[in-house]
């Protein structure tokens, strides 16, 4: 079976599973809502294009043709409370798994993580600074031309991009970026930024609880505005990654062999690093630091669909959405309403140890 056909078959099945997981998640909560009611509530809120308007610029004219009889309370719970959180979880999981797949291929290491180049640490510094020291953020962002009172998400996104650029700048010499040097630079920058975050937390006072929840990965305050900001960025950049899946396959052979086969290695590495970092930054900025999604999901899918990135990238991304929706549903179903990052760590850490153990056994 050709790679394109295989990717389409697996992706279609996973998309159906994702929609089923989203529908199931919307029924779960302090108030149990039947599947039929969830479907009707979502259809009631679904706009349908009915024409084109030219007043004030070209645009679509939308209408809401569905008007099912749903109790106002249930409509509000499904559309206003649960749906934005569930959809954002799907988008963030999609982004982290896609970035994890790219980073594992980039570093030729199935245990690489999307935060390996310091993106998560940079985002953490930006977010914690915005929470605990907003005056400092204003002082720093003023020269950058950013508006005063920069929000947590903007600060996190800027911090993530700056950290990734810093790692790349440190690791690049003479126009070349050795993967080993990039990895070591990432570890060093992560350690330093982690120390700065710890310093801010020690002096955070009453805002420490909010900062810690963000660092754990939390979707409690998800809103449709977050979905509207993150989704276009993630989908556009994911589409930009798809043409590089063949290059990722060739890079697995090694850089010298890739050059021999006609791959512009340094250019490809720059594109993959930049796009992977921005995708991760977009996810972390709206959801906080959620670990193990970009490690566990691509690894599991690699065992199922194989190492061909033409199949692995789209299937891992969709499976990442399923994984995070499921774990977030579990997180908000507990009595303590845990941050989703706690649940993903509880699942991912044992799996990571299993991978290490399995690797040691095969090396004996």
From TrEMBL:
Record-linked InterPro entries: ABC_BtuC-like, ABC_transptr_permease_BtuC
Membrane-spanning segments: 86-107, 119-144, 150-170, 182-202, 222-244, 271-297, 336-356
SUPFAM superfamilies: ABC transporter involved in vitamin B12 uptake, BtuC
Subcellular location: Cell membrane
Membrane topology term: Multi-pass membrane protein
Keyword entries, A-Z: Cell membrane, Membrane, Transmembrane, Transmembrane helix, Transport
Pfam families for the chain: FecCD
GO annotation, cellular component aspect: plasma membrane
Function: Required for corrinoid utilization. Probably part of the ABC transporter complex BtuCDF involved in cobalamin (vitamin B12) import. Probably involved in the translocation of the substrate across the membrane.
Family: Belongs to the binding-protein-dependent transport system permease family. FecCD subfamily.
Subunit structure: The complex is composed of two ATP-binding proteins (BtuD), two transmembrane proteins (BtuC) and a solute-binding protein (BtuF).
PANTHER family: ABC TRANSPORTER PERMEASE PROTEIN MJ0876-RELATED, FERRIC ENTEROBACTIN TRANSPORT SYSTEM PERMEASE PROTEIN
Protein name, per record: Cobalamin import system permease protein BtuC
Organism of this sequence: Halorubellus litoreus
Gene name tied to this protein: btuC
């Amino acid at each position: 079976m050709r790679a394109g056909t295989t990717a389409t078959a697996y992706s279609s099945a996973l998309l159906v599973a994702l929609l089923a997981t989203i529908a199931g998640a919307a029924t779960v909560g302090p108030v149990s809502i039947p599947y039929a009611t969830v479907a009707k509530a979502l259809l009631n809120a679904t706009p349908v294009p009915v024409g084109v308007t030219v007043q004030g610029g070209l645009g679509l004219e939308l209408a809401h043709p569905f008007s099912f009889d749903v109790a106002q309370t249930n409509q509000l719970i499904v559309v206003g409370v649960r749906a934005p959180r569930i959809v954002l979880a799907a988008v963030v999981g999609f982004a982290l798994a896609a970035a994890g797949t790219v980073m594992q291929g980039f570093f030729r290491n199935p245990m690489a993580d999307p935060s390996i180049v310091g993106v998560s640490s940079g985002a953490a510094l930006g977010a914690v600074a915005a929470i605990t020291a907003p005056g400092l953020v204003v002082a720093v962002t003023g020269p950058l031309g950013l508006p005063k009172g920069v929000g947590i998400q903007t600060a996190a996104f800027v911090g993530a991009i700056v950290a990734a650029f810093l790692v790349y700048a440190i690791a690049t010499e003479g126009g070349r970026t050795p993967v080993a040097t990039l990895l070591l630079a990432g570890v060093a920058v992560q350690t330093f930024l982690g120390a700065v975050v710890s310093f801010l937390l020690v002096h955070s006072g009453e805002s420490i609880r909010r900062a810690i929840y963000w660092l754990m990965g939390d979707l409690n305050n998800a809103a449709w505005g977050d979905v509207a900001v993150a989704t276009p960025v993630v989908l556009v950049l994911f589409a930009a990654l798809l043409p590089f899946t063949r290059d990722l396959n060739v890079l697995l052979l090694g850089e010298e062999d890739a050059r021999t086969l006609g791959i512009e290695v340094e250019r490809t590495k720059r594109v993959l690093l930049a796009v992977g970092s921005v995708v991760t930054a977009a996810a972390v900025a709206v959801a906080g630091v959620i670990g193990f999604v970009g490690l566990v999901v691509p690894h599991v899918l690699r065992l199922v669909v194989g190492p061909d990135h033409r199949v692995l990238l789209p299937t891992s991304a969709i499976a990442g959405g399923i994984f995070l929706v499921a774990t977030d549903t579990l997180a908000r179903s507990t009595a303590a309403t845990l941050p989703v990052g706690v649940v993903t760590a509880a699942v991912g850490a044992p799996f990571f140890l299993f991978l290490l153990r399995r690797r040691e056994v095969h090396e004996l």
